[in-house]
Design brief:
alpha/beta, 11 helices, Aspartate Aminotransferase, domain 1, Aspartate Aminotransferase, domain 2, 2 domains
């Protein structure tokens, strides 16, 4: 594996611990919380008998009927190969985003775009804020890329601050930013993002900005990097249909980038026919579901406020709830307690830079949220009795 230059890191807390126990901005692989192949995502309902899944951040209204019907139509058409160019889908995405169709690339979920980009670029060194989405790191390991981690500090509510700019150096080949971040939910301010883009352009560093959850953020478009796409040649905007349209099983994501030469390299690195006919038709139908989106965003806003308030009443510490999920800190063992009672929540202890006691829950329908709050209340009561 490519050697990562070790950085001098001053301890903020005594004793060994995961990456978050250091006050220095950067840490190399050897200093960070190691979890490797054991990392698990949310939504694993197949090995668990959970009645309600709060571990996957999917739109609480479920897949729109029109999208489901389009996917079913696609199944009936699947005796033919899919359009390898995804022409109709890319045309509709371009129309919705108000960009040229040639700037759009589609994939088998957002993860497929991540892997295609990494395989096309073959970076030698990457800079990753942590904690964040693990698939960035996993894809980079495929090409033996050296990894440098930038610690998002708990005392800053895990927000990306201006000191991140100092970590952007000419020896970095690529940076991944998730906005809002997963699992913390923190948003990077627009002015800071613009400065990051500018510095990356000056140093010819590729920057992938993952906005898969930005649609759930109030005034989310004001945080988007979409308007910078045309002028930045090393910028990739990542989006997916997974979360907003509740269709993770269909696997559909896309990237927007003005560097058409690099998009061709990504296509060459990707598998052919990587987007099925059902997924392509479902994507086209989803972009017409404006009423569904409006209704779901209003409901998410209401239920996020309800859940946040109830969690704080129970004494949990919550961080930056901006999207359709809430990141919070509680007592170790809470995930197991909930699972025993038929509720699956996301244990975030296997995120790099976190430890046991951090959790993420999706915002769901009110009756389901009430059930979760009840179970969490039982957990708090039980632990208080043990004190």
């Amino acid at each position: 594996m490519h050697k990562v230059e070790r950085n001098k890191i001053n301890k903020r807390m005594e004793g060994p611990g995961p990456c978050r126990h250091f006050s220095g901005d950067l840490c190399s692989e050897g200093n960070a919380h190691s979890y490797g192949h054991g990392h698990k995502h949310g939504g694993d309902i197949y090995q668990r008998e959970a009645l309600i899944d709060f571990s996957a951040n999917i739109n609480l209204l479920g897949i729109p009927e029109g999208v489901a019907e389009a996917a079913c139509k696609g199944v009936r058409l699947s005796a033919s190969y899919p359009d390898v160019e995804c022409r109709e889908l890319r045309k509709e995405i371009a129309r919705s985003a108000k960009v040229p169709m040639e700037q759009v690339i589609c994939g088998n979920g957002a993860a497929d775009i991540i892997y295609s980009l990494v395989l096309a670029l073959k970076p030698k060194k990457a800079l990753l804020p942590v904690p964040s989405f693990y698939e960035y790191e996993k894809a980079l390991r495929v090409v033996d890329c050296g990894l440098e981690y930038f610690l998002l500090r708990e005392e800053d509510d895990f927000l990306l601050r201006e000191d991140f700019l100092d970590a952007i150096r000419e020896d970095i080949d690529i940076i991944f930013l998730c906005n809002p971040n997963n699992p913390t939910g923190s948003l990077t301010e627009k002015k800071l993002m613009e400065r990051i883009i500018q510095k990356c352009e000056e140093l010819s560093i590729w920057l992938l900005v993952d906005e898969c959850f930005l649609d759930f953020v109030e005034e989310g478009r004001s945080y988007s990097v979409l308007e910078q796409i045309g002028e930045a040649k090393h910028l990739m905007l990542l989006k997916a249909f997974t979360k907003l349209y509740a269709m993770p099983g269909l696997r559909l994501g896309y990237g927007i980038c003005s560097n058409r030469e690099f998009l061709l390299r990504m296509k060459e690195a990707a598998q052919p026919w990587n987007v099925s006919i059902p997924a392509q038709l479902a994507g086209v139908a989803a972009l017409k579901e404006t009423g569904y989106v409006t209704a779901s965003l209003e409901l998410v806003k209401q239920e996020r406020a309800y859940l946040s308030g109830e969690l704080m009443k129970l004494g949990f510490q919550i961080y930056c709830p901006k999207a359709n999920y809430i990141f919070f800190r509680g007592t170790p063992g809470l995930a197991s307690f909930c699972l025993e009672r038929g509720i699956l929540i996301r244990d975030c202890s296997n995120y790099r830079g976190l430890e046991e006691g951090y959790y993420r829950i999706a915002v769901k329908k009110h009756e389901e949220n009430v059930q979760l709050v009840k179970i969490l209340g039982e957990a708090v009561s039980l632990w208080q009795k043990r004190l």
